[in-house]
Amino acid sequence: MSLSIGIDTGGTYTDAVILDAQTETVIAKAKALTTRHDLAVGIAEAAGRALADAAVDAATIGLVSISTTLATNALVEGHGGRVALVMIGFGEKDLDKSGLRAALGDDPVVFVPGGHDTHGRAAPLDLAPLEALLDDAHGQVSAFAVAGYFAVRNPEHECAARDLIRARTGLPVTCSHELTSKLDGPRRALTTLLNARLIGLIDGLITATRRFLAERDVDAPLMVVRGDGSLVSADFAALRPIETILSGPAASLVGARFLTGRDDAHVADIGGTTTDIALLDQGRPRIDPDGAQVGGHATMVEAVAVRTFGLGGDSEVSHEQGALDPEIHLGPRRVVPLSLAEMLFPGQIVPHLKRQMERPLPNRLDGRFALRSGVPDRFAGGLTRSQADLLARITASPEPLAALTRSTAELATLSRLAARGLVLLCGFTPSDAQHVLGRFEHWNREAARIGAGVVARQRDGYGRPLADTPEAMARRVVARLERLSAERVLEAAFAGDGLTAAGLAQTPIVRRALDRQGGLVRAALILDRPVIGLGAGAGAYYPAVGALLGTETVIPDHADVANAIGAVAGQVRIIATAEVAPSDTGESFVVTGALSARYDDEASALAAARRACHDLADDRARQAGAATVSITLAERIDAPVVDELRRFVGATVTATAVGRPATR
Length: 664
Prior knowledge:
Distance between the termini: 12 Å
Strand order of the largest sheet: 3-2-1-4-9-10
Helix content: 25-40%
Number of strands: 33
Shape: globular
Largest sheet: 6 strands, mixed
């Protein structure tokens, strides 16, 4: 018997399944809290319990695969290591393109003379500005990102910068040509920056998983799910962590297909931090041709066409300050639910909440706490004095925000520390609301109920409390999450139809349809396919979502671990491309991408491009962990006939390598 272990590390839970690969049967499953300070703890608890429940020998495990929302959540919440960006051949104005300056934040950037033109010819390279930066880099950054002008045509300058950085610092370096063969330099630089920012995060996940497997004597290949749903070896993923953004959503689509047998569906996976909504089309995930967009960043990573929203069971609950009839806001920030915080830190949440309830007047900071996250000190580089001072006052135990912060400015500083992942915030969430209503029972219900009462005491613009009872407040929060979830499914469906105008799901006609309002015009919405709800909270929220949308809702068995199932149900898939174009003189043909060379005629250039793509795809697929590889070639030739003469403009050759991962 050959068994597989699937593991999914999410923002709140780590899930594990034991799957019989031959019968496609779930043998055992388990969940544990994700332990961000040491991922190995949560992985060991979930996977260890699943192995114990399955009562199987370690020698029967032939494959281990992990999916994760860690990279997705990091981009949504703005977490990750501090990175130095090296721009070769670019200028200051290029930071204003593709959202690069906003993504960079206060991380350092250095501009290096050099780069190439569209035919791969080099400008003079001067690494002196980079050398000056390296003198002060120790302790200030955790990784480097290198992007060169037209580096996809000729990567030699990126490679020279990479080699210098590694020799001088020993820190991880990501080069843009390693991640994509597409043009658009600023967007390529953005993708590279985000990749470098995520290296420590994904490396920690892989290291934690390997540590657990070694402790349990499991000697099997370790794979990671990429954003397009395919699998790659852990070593392959460690160098390209950006490709694991949307790993969780991609795995959920594979898992949804596996669990339901439905070929066409809207798949909504609600976690603690985010809700991911994507489409199954003819049994396969729909891929975004423009690249993954997560947390406001438009990357060049090929991934599922998923809409990721900062909406989950652990979304922070707030309301419109000063509004006469304030709307409840959820997210996009994740906080530790009060019920969970009390379970993790017994006696350190409830007493504070009780004292807050006893005060004559509510404080806007009531029900909110902060504590150190346990992130290693190396990720705390580059803090301002005010940030460092506030961080020094925060301990490893939750403390009320009113006691920690002394001004509105310090609240903003606290938010920046939380965005860096250095501090965890605690507060009332939809998960707490479900505990109040008795639908969830796994954490501390008393903390949830008192927390709901604290939130209910907050005032609207008339001076009235937001709700009369904790239960009424909880129902209001749950109803808000259900309504927002329905709107998000609609937004994703509109986007799938190419209707991307902002706010379509909030237009008066759509609101009338969702609210079932009467009138001279009655509106109704009909989705073309059912909604598959996944995630531990799907059963609590998505039946109501389906009712709002007037469509069938499918909550499959094992919906709570669909990502972990999808992690081992996929296959390796690698794509290599090459571009063929006339040279600047028109006398030769230039091949770039998988190969950099010149040829005397079009036929020779195309033949060389095909060979290069085939060999590169095969090689990378085997590096990515495929046992056997099947390769298909495709090409697109742009050669219009003008005045009865064929004029070759260019061609793109693509090789796709597919194979199941090797097992022990």
